[in-house]
Amino acid sequence: MEIAMDEARLAAFMEEEFPQVAGDFVIESVGEELVVRLKVGELHLRPGGTVSGPTMFALADVSVWLAILSRIGPVALAVTTGASIDFMRKPAAGRDLIARARLLKLGRVLAVGDVLIFSEGEAAPVARSSMTYSIPPKG
């Protein structure tokens, strides 16, 4: 497995290409598994004080996007073409979410990734997601 972009390069690229949300995510490690932290704030909560489903979906989506870029380099226009998410338990209140993303397939045109999302400090995942991305042709 060859790493094209490390944590620092991915963070800089995200800040440049996706600044509206870049501050919400911290790329903790890049390797066989990419680990991303979502800094949970008030805007991520839904009534009842839990993290909203759309927030967890965004974490899964961004995590797979970053996992792909870590392998192929800075391709801003790689886009989600398929997604599913299973919400398995309520995230712990007042804790960041941690996504562990891995690529199951990385082809020339499509990439498929799997993500487990955890509340910080908890062993059981709160959500699981599968994402498919379209990779634009080179050139």
UniProtKB/TrEMBL annotation:
<dbReference type="Pfam" id="PF03061">
    <property type="entry name" value="4HBT"/>
</dbReference>
<protein>
    <submittedName>
        <fullName>PaaI family thioesterase</fullName>
    </submittedName>
</protein>
<dbReference type="GO" id="GO:0016790">
    <property type="term" value="F:thiolester hydrolase activity"/>
</dbReference>
<feature type="domain" description="Thioesterase">
    <location>
        <begin position="48"/>
        <end position="122"/>
    </location>
</feature>
<dbReference type="InterPro" id="IPR029069">
    <property type="entry name" value="HotDog_dom_sf"/>
</dbReference>
<dbReference type="InterPro" id="IPR006683">
    <property type="entry name" value="Thioestr_dom"/>
</dbReference>
